Amino acid sequence: MSVTQPARLSCPHCDHTQNFVYWQSINVKIDPSAKEDLLQRKLHTMECERCGTITPISYTTLYHDMEEGVMIWLCPDGEPPLKDKEEIMESLPPALLHRYQFRTVVNMNELIEKIRCFDDGLDDRVVELVKLLTFQQLIKQNPEMSEETQLYYSDTSREKTGYHLHFVIMRPGVQQSKTFAIPRSVYESIIVDFKKHLLDDSNWPHIDKHFAAQLFQLFHQSVK
User: Fold this and answer.
1) Domain residues of the chain, as ranges?
2) For residue range 8-30, what is the model confidence (pLDDT) as tens digits?
3) Burial of 195 from C-beta contacts in 10 A (0-12 / 13-18 / 19+)
């Protein structure tokens, strides 16, 4: 089941106080509409009833997709509560525990990306490797690009030349984002190269560019 908690919040612009609902956990099988609201960021923003100001609200949420066998913990502080993690792991039957994928993310961009990866049947670890390789190429082609630039997977499309993965480029201080696509064959080739390094970790890992960099290091050490 999904767990919500009502609250009263004040608009930081006009100080108007209104109702807000914290979604502590979202079971998308039970509340499919909540998933769409989450992807549209509605559950983590508050629109002021008086002045219309839209304010991001940062809080911890557990995303649970029973059909896909996915749990993603949005933790702005970086780490899920230890007690809550233990309770969840103990509550799942061993047969289900084996097929689940557990992830930790620290912001909404990461959460939305993970959901889209799993919905499209992609391995998010491989997606991070693709992003890291692509980012290195982008930096060479665009020296003005900051290391703080972030890439996020958005969707997959079928084109005349085959399937392509689409990504969004988000640069700090630049409001308008850009998109680019790479052939899915790049993704598939990375799976082949890194297969033995893609270890199954059920301890709520944070799969990001740092995780991908560690995998690259392991790969290079293995081929020396």
Assistant:
1) 3-119, 124-223
2) 999 999 999 999 999 999 999 99
3) exposed
Paired sense of beta strands 3-10 and 17-27, if any? antiparallel
Number of residues that this document lists for the chain: 224
**Residues in a beta bridge with 170:** 150
Model pLDDT for residues 66-110, shown as the tens digit of each residue: 999 999 999 998 888 778 888 888 888 888 888 899 999 999 999
The reported pLDDT for the residue numbered 224 is: 62
Phi, psi torsion values for 11, nearest 5 degrees: -70, 130
Q: What are phi and psi of 159, to 5 degrees?
A: -120, 180
* pLDDT at residue 212 tops 70: yes
